[in-house]
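Try it yourself: sequence plus 9Z3, in.
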Amino acid sequence: MSLGDNAVFDSAPLSPLAGRRVIDPDTYFDHNKPPTNLEWAHTEIEKFLRHQAPDQRVVLITSGGTTVPLENNTVRFVDNFSAGTRGSCSAEQFLSLGYAVIFLYREKSLQPFNRNYSENTRGMLSYLEETEDGHVRVKPEWEQKIRRDLAEYRKYMDGDKLLMVNFTTLADYLFLLREVSLMLAPLGSRAMFYLAAAVSDFFIPSHSMSEHKIQSGDGDLTLRMNQVPKFLRPLVKNWAPACYIVSFKLETDPELLGPKAKHALDKYGHQVVVANMLDTRKWQVWLYTRESTEPCVIQISQQQLAEGRDIEQDLTEEISRRHKQFVANHHNSTQQQ
Ligand code: 9Z3
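Structure, out:
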C-alpha cells in the first residue's frame, strides 16, 4: 500500500473503535455506505444478463486497486498497487474467447481496448498530429491499431458483451462485488469470477474516521486500521457457491507466495489461485488448484514480452479451458442425478 497523496500526516484522532478486531462481512456492510452507482449497476447488470444466450459463459473481472479513505470528507487515502493491466488485458482476451464480461474496475485505471491510449501509458496527444489544413488526425502509423481497437470496443459494447462498472474505495468495491455475485449466482457453473483487483487488507471504519481533513497541528500521525473481513469466504460459501472462482495472490517475498496461495485454496475451497510476484508478474504466474500438489506454471520469455506479447493471453486460455471442463463436469453430474 502507498500513501495516496504523498503527504506526510502528522496528526490523527485515535478512535477506541479502530482496534485490530476482525469484524464479519455482514457487520462491514451494516457500518459502511454503499457507492452511489450501486443501483445503476444493478439495473445495468440485470439488462446485460437478460441479453445473454442461455449457454453464454459470463466472467466478472475485477481490476485495479481499492482506496481506503482516512477522512469521511476524503482528502487523504491509502491506495493499493495495481495499474489494471492484468484485468483490462484479460478482459480483451476473455471477450475474444467468447465470454460476456462484466468489468469491475478502479476509476481511472486501465480499461479494455482503451488501455494503450491511457495517460498511464502514453498520453493521448502522442497519437495525434495536425494536418497542413489545420485538422487534427491520428498519426498514420497508429491508424490501423486504433481502428482495430475501436472496432473491437464498439462490437463488444454494442453487442452487450462488455459492461463496465467502476469503483474507487474498498467499500464501493465490496458492495459492488456482493451485488454482482448475487446476480451471477443463478448462472451456476457458467459464471466465473476472476478477482485480479488489488484489495486492501486494512481499513478505517467510517464511524472511527475523522469527519473532516485531519489537521497537522497535533504532531505526528499514528494510524491504526482494522483488518478487512475476508470476503472470499462468503463469496464462495454463500453468494455464488456454484460458480467458478479464480482469486489472485500477490507477494513480494518469494518464500511466502506458494504457501500463501495454498493456504487460500484450503481455507476458502474455491477453484484456482493465481499466484504472482510483484516484480515478475508480467511474464510468470503460477496456478494453484486442489487437483494437484504442484502449481501449473505459465510463463513467457523476456523476448516475447519485449515483442509485445501479453502473458494474459496464455493465462486466460488456460483458465478458460479449465472453466469449460468445470461446466462440463457440472453438466454431467446434474444429468446423472
Ligand atoms: C494481483 O495479484 C494482480 O495480478 C496484480 C496485477 C494486482 C499484481 P496490474 O494491475 O497488477 O497488472 O498492475 N491481484 C490480486 C492482489 C490482491 O490484493 N490479492 C489479495 C492478496 O494477495 C487477495 S484478494 O492477499
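One thing you can check immediately is this: The pocket of 9Z3 is lined by residues 82-86, 195-196, 198-199, 247-250, 276, 281 (CB under 6 Å).
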